[in-house]
Write a structure and sequence with these properties.
This protein is 32% helix and 19% strand. By secondary structure, the protein is α/β, with parallel strands linked by helices. The chain has four domains: 60 residues, no CATH class; 334 residues, Vaccinia Virus protein VP39 (Rossmann fold), CATH 3.40.50.150; 99 residues, no CATH class; 106 residues. A hairpin with a 5-residue loop joins strand 12 and strand 13.
Amino acid sequence: MQKLTLEDAETRSADVVAENIDQLKAIFPEAFTEGKMDFEVLKQLLGGAIDEREEKYGLNWHGKRRARQLALTPSTGTLRPCPEESVDWDTTQNLMIEGDNLEVLKLLQKSYSGKVKLIYIDPPYNTGKDFVYPDDFSDNIKNYLELTGQIEGGRRITSNTEASGRFHTEWLNMMYPRLKLARNLLREDGAIFISIDERELQNLRSICNDVFGEECFVAVITVLCNPKGRSQDKYFATNHEYVVVYGKSVLPKGYFAIEKGEDQIEAEYPEEDEGGKYRLLELRNTHREFGRHNRKNLYFPLFANDDGEVFLESEQENLHKILPDWDDGFEGCWTWDRAKAEKDIELLVAQQVNGSGRWKIYRKSYASGADRMLKTIFLDKLFYTERGQKEFNKLFKTKAKLFQAPKSPYLLAQLFQTITSDSDLVLDFLGGSGTTGHAVMMQNQRDGSKRRFIVIQLPEPIDSENKEQKAAADYLDKLGKPRTIAEIMKERLRRAGRSVKEQDEMFSGDIGFRVFKLDSTNIRAWDPNRDDLPKTLEESVEHLKANRTEEDILFELLLKLGLDLTIPIEQKTIAGKTVHNIGAGTLLVCLAQKITADEVETLGLGIVDWHKELAPAGETTAVFRDSAFADDVAKTNLTAILQQHGLENVRSL
């Protein structure tokens, strides 16, 4: 029975560097000698794809190399379950994770790599106010615990003022490693949506080109968020923000089209025939820079009868000859050539202009196809920041601003509608007030889908001395909750779920969420006290921390072995010991604190019988508490029983 230690891959988050090296070995095995890469050979194999110029196109800043390295460094942390703070713990597929998003993204790599359909984030805008917290290359878990006041240290969120000389640098160093890790979680057909303002728009585009590839750029959406404009601006009153969109891969044309509602279809497509709802668009090119002078192949006559039927030739009598000319005599052109007109002649309709005797040609544009594509300017009043604040305050039944300027859930629901449906997974690793979770539940109620969400938020302290945060601090005090933004998010998600259910009592979708909190690993590190080695040796017999529960350990195993955090867990009592079955037999865990030699055979054979009953498709891992065994003989005997019956992978903690 092999013991799991902090040095084992199973106790760490995904090792991205090792995975990258394995991929390179698979593609270029000849570039490796004795496990090391020979860059000269690799350069020869890549030929002209190597750019060795000292000056090259791209965005560079102080700290970029370190930021990239941060993303590649595995985490030794874990996520501890909090059923008491959750809603519908036993059935929900949604997650709310409280912690430093950099570490949480690392911990999610094994379980959720390539599984997220859409990522939405509303990162802190680079305004010079507090938002940057110092990532620590050596021990980011300790840094996080100090930051959130869980251990002494006194480190605090820092300001990022323009006077510091690193205004853009600090923001880029915060964003870059998180985007690198987030990309790994996206499905190949997934996309990321990032809200941003004008201060960092260009830098965001540059680092997204670096992380996702310029060829994967989709769009920059302009959102009218404040119709009155910002009065504090120096020159122009800004009344818009942006949403930057990139795909994980190059996505097909029309991929982001949405199904429009019946009312919207009725308004935009007032005509109907056997082909469905349609509208009429003029066939003549309405741009005068194009005409017979430079588009000769698009200038030809069409013919129509009094009923509006269109013909390519004048074979019938009394047909009207129609050319794409303008009223002033300018010879324009059609948008279709003759071959296209002949192929789709049934889509053409002729109409007389106000009884003038002049005729125009129109084409039918149906409500399906390219006409379903979203436009890059969002003007709907439902998307205003003011509406987001109104919806938030309505949930909390207050006029006070418990959270400043939350995004409108209607805006996010519109974005989620583009490429997600069914049970697609949506991630927001800068969760704020929880608008993403609210929008997912709301859109599921609208279209009957079962989208799932993961929202991550730092338990950032709320300062009662800060005028903008006092109302939130007072509210959390009344609830008896810690003064953090994460607590505001949890309360919003609870209220949003109830609100969705109240609006539609027949809705049976998921309105719950499981809460997890970032912490250091459950496995005790070897940290000898050299002044009292006997005591250190005695304490090290137990490899698991004393203040951790069985549930804490179970979910760390799920994370480190790459299983979903909402996967079903069953319990069964065998030989008086609780045995957990996770993922239909993928993982069998017994964390009993004592297993005697007399109990080994009964326990082992009972686990074997249950394993046969479960009949898992793949390999099963069995895990036990290392300190539970009276001696090595008991441990060896249990391992032998399990391996004799096909359970080869037996580990201890």
